[in-house]
Design brief:
Two copies of one chain form a homodimer.
Chain A lengths: L1 H26 L3 H10 L9 H4 L3 H13 L4 H29 L4 E2 L2 E2 L1 H5 L1 H20 L1 H4 L4 H25 L7 H27 L4 H25 L2 H4 L5 H4 L5 H9 L2 H7 L8 H10 L2 H23 L3 H14 L5
Helix pairs in contact in A: 1-2, 1-4, 1-5, 1-18, 4-5, 4-10, 4-18, 5-7, 5-9, 5-10, 9-10, 10-11, 11-17, 14-15, 14-17
Chain lengths: 339, 339
Amino acid sequence: MTLQIFAATMLPAIESELRQAIAVTERLGLEELHYMLAYHMGWQGEGAGSRAQGKRIRPLLVLLTALAASPRSEVEVWQAALPAAVAVELVHNFSLIHDDIEDNSLLRRGRPTLWTQWGVPQAINTGDALFSLAHLAILRLEETAPAAALAAARTLQETCLHLTQGQYLDIGYSTRTGLTTADYWPMVSGKTAALLAACTELGALVAGSAARSHYRDFGRLLGLAFQAQDDLLGIWGDVEATGKSADSDLVEGKKSLPVLFGLEQSGPFAARWQKGPITPEEVPDLAAQLEAEGARNFTISEVDRLTSQALQALESAQPQGVAGEALRELALKLLNRQK
Amino acid sequence: MTLQIFAATMLPAIESELRQAIAVTERLGLEELHYMLAYHMGWQGEGAGSRAQGKRIRPLLVLLTALAASPRSEVEVWQAALPAAVAVELVHNFSLIHDDIEDNSLLRRGRPTLWTQWGVPQAINTGDALFSLAHLAILRLEETAPAAALAAARTLQETCLHLTQGQYLDIGYSTRTGLTTADYWPMVSGKTAALLAACTELGALVAGSAARSHYRDFGRLLGLAFQAQDDLLGIWGDVEATGKSADSDLVEGKKSLPVLFGLEQSGPFAARWQKGPITPEEVPDLAAQLEAEGARNFTISEVDRLTSQALQALESAQPQGVAGEALRELALKLLNRQK
């Protein structure tokens, strides 16, 4: 409930700042470039609307962390942290544009991906434009939190480098054999955990908190837990509840945590996997086989371990007041948990 | 001669800093990502060497501008400006990686482009990594020129946004009809002039010069003159002298300044152009036709006009000492002129 109250005020402010950040392309008379960005952000074109915009979890995480980590009044902290919140969401969206090209993905949030609509050249370039807009956004901390501006810009840029490391491993894994669960963590550290770690670190940085590294750990562990949970749902998820196609990860050949666990067992699952692409018809039996080999329980225990480590890191950070409660609530919501 | 003396000391320092800037990927154990970067920078792989590295004109421009714009001693200014010089060269190289994918280019500096060797997904991602490394490099100004660090980071990032604007127009032009010479300038302002403007502006910024906008104008006009000159050589250049294939621009269908001028005339050149791709055999006659319609003289006069405006801007900046002389020399060298 606490989260809902914060979100009701924060989300419109985030949306408005995001629109301002990309409005510069419109002012420059580059209507189509602006339109491509607005399409990707979920504001324009067919299917525009809240589903196409995503949940804006990352900017919420920045703002709530800043509030929970600061002794100052809410209004001040808000004003200070918005450039960082917006920057993180723009980086997230930039990475989606490029990932969709790299992964040959046709759909994003239920709509055709940018490259399928405007071609690969314009999509690469539009991603690059969004990348610059993201980093220009965070430099506006100079006005709202000058002492944190340079460190925040560096943190975000190091995060982007980390994202490319995760993506580099992920692209390489698609053709590599002999992978184990040990190969999983460096990849998701970059692809998922790095940006969530940046969210909480940037919030703490703007707040001038001494607990910056605890907040960073919280975000990083939350990201790892989230990815493992997402992998679990990708094979055994309830299609109705998650909105994801439950069989897609096996059919897509995604080397997710349960799959890597299964490959390590060198049992019937691994034998089938190595024979080549899996058809949708095979999925129910193969998912059951993977579960029988222990992959589901292993993944659940990893999610539990990481979730509890994340919440422990949050506790160590000693978040303050109702914003601290909302932060905990957001973490559990991200992991599809009730408490 | 003055330029040669500076270059002999500066180029090794630039190369060493560039290597350090990308070494972080090697330290992270990402050998192949590091190798891809080192390949693109011209340090490793088949054909590595000075030709594959390019001329490093941009970082030289940063360092010479800083020297010419500062009253401080050489050693201090060097130390201060190197992060900016390196950052600009990394941005240039990042943009080449993505441009080569977008333009479907097979060769770069005489070697196979990154995407042809490692595929489009890894090449997009490696470009993104280089983008981050470039911006991390400029943030190191915090150590050498702290007062300029934030403004420099913003200038470089705005420049990157400008690059994407130029590229957006360029990609769009390839399928647009009815273009005129007026459409040329906004495109090359982004694609070529923006980064050269950033070089001279960043040099002046690090030097704390009051003539920052004059230096910026110098770089920008130099960039426009350079591009028009490059377009001239792309049709009527001496293959031996330039190392470029003289007929390539017409065969490639590049909408360069002389071509846009020719299209505006609606004469025999435009009629042939609109019929479709031009074969190498047609080039001598068509180039002569384009020249007869006035495109060559028009382009030469534009190069002359812009060169003289660039040199005037440099004079207004009042560059100091031998570095000022070297800066003028570098400008003329870039334009393939003797004086």
